[in-house]
Amino acid sequence: MNRQRIAQEVFVPHRIVMVAVALGLVLWAALAMRWDWIPRYFDLAVQGIWRTLWLLALSCLIGFALAVPLGLAQAAGPRVLAAPARAFCTVIRGTPLLLQLWLIYFGVGSLFPQFPWIRESELWPYLRQAWPYALLALSLSFAGYEGEVMRGAFKSVAGGQLEAARSMGMGRFAIFRRIWFPQALQRALPTLGGETVLQLKATPLVATITVIEIYAVSSRVRQDTFIIYEPLLLLAVIYMVIAGLLALGFKLLEQRFNRGMLG
Amino acid sequence: MLDWLYALWPGLETSVGLLSLQPPGWGGNLLRGAWASLQIAIGAFALGLLIGTAGALGKLHGGPVTRDLLAVYTVVVRAVPELILILILYYAGTDLLNQALRALGQRPVEISGVVAGIAVLGIVQGAYATEVLRGAIQSVPRGQHEAARAYGMGPVQIFRRVTIPAMLPLALPGLSNLWLIATKDTALLAIVGFSELTLETRQAAGSTRAHFTFFLAAGALYLVMTLLSGRIFGWIEARYRRGQAAQ
Fold first, then answer.
1. Is A262 within a domain?
2. pLDDT digits (tens, 9 = 90+) for A179-209
3. Chain B contacts in chain A segment 65-104 (CB below 8 A)
4. A35 touching B, CB under 8 A?
5. Rounded distance between C-alpha atoms, residue A180 and residue A24, angstroms
6. For position A106, which CATH number holds?
7. The pTM is what?
8. Cβ atoms within 10 A of the Cβ of B37, count?
9. Are A142 and A90 in the same domain?
């Protein structure tokens, strides 16, 4: 049934022509453009993709873990907690990520060597590298945007449900874990999927602070070989594949979460 | 006048000195950078609106080929990082323009950063604006459109006098979001070496080693821009929602 519908949608005359044109372009790109640099940089590119992926995954996880309290504080917290949470989200969302990244790397990073006790600590080998700063900046940025999303999601859960849970004798934590959070998450999930793709698109910025992820690898190919378009085009394709996989993953996740819900 | 404050906060006096508008200070450079950022953001947003309107109309009323091509445009732009699109469009744009000029027997030109920035960010904004405007136009009830046609209005007049006023309140939150993205995306032009606010800030910070002073000052400038424009958009939205039933 489903396969039939897909077949009906693809095998329309104009689509066949467009697919043929697209295939022709790909074939032309494969034959006429220069791809001989790929074997030399293959290992580096795989490492780069791996680094992009774990930066994305870790920063989204840390950022989301921060976003839940940020959203909760804004949706239901007392003013002493709500006001700083709101200020944090406003500042993060109101300034470019590149600026935040450079502030953290060049600013905060340049403070550490002044203190001997930091240089002697166990953390120093990590603090000398660039990736902790990249991860910190990406996580804070994700937290800022998602804090706002979670605020709306927490607010959208009907108050009557929380009251009902309370009258059943559930404790605060149980209400949060079993009623409030799951429903807020279900409502936020479509937005979170889109925001994760946006986060993926933010990761190449970390190349500016010397983290060698996939974008930095392509810049290096450009500098070494003076080939401009080919690495950039391949890079665009790689990002599109990752973005497509992310969108697919979130779609499956949404289906799972929507089981037993009314349409 | 500020001596008591300087006594309390020893670093402040140097910071104020570094940020002063006269040459030993870098405040003038920062403001010039902010002005360049603002120009590019406004230009890119306007270009994005133009592309977005055309794209939305094409997606809603265009033929099958137009619709498919627009779908490819919006999907590609929304899946590929802005930075990479900027690089591709920047290199390809200058390349194509110079090839065209050479074919016409003209000498190649150096494209100005402002124009290139506006063009590139405008194309990126256009993809998002297409989706925002398409959604807003779609949610205008069909009956209004049909009623206008029954009154004998032409398609242009219907678009100008019925569709736009009816869809604007729905589109404005999305558009205001796009404007914020435009202001922040101008920072990406720092990577292709265009002197907007972020690059000016980095140069000032690099040559004085006062990273915190300059990055925080630039952050404040960006915040002023985004908060102020948030106010303005809120005001426009309130104006366009007048006479609408509360939701």
1. no
2. 999 999 988 998 999 999 999 999 999 999 9
3. 90-91, 93-100, 102-103
4. no
5. 52
6. 1.10.3720.10
7. 0.88
8. 31
9. yes
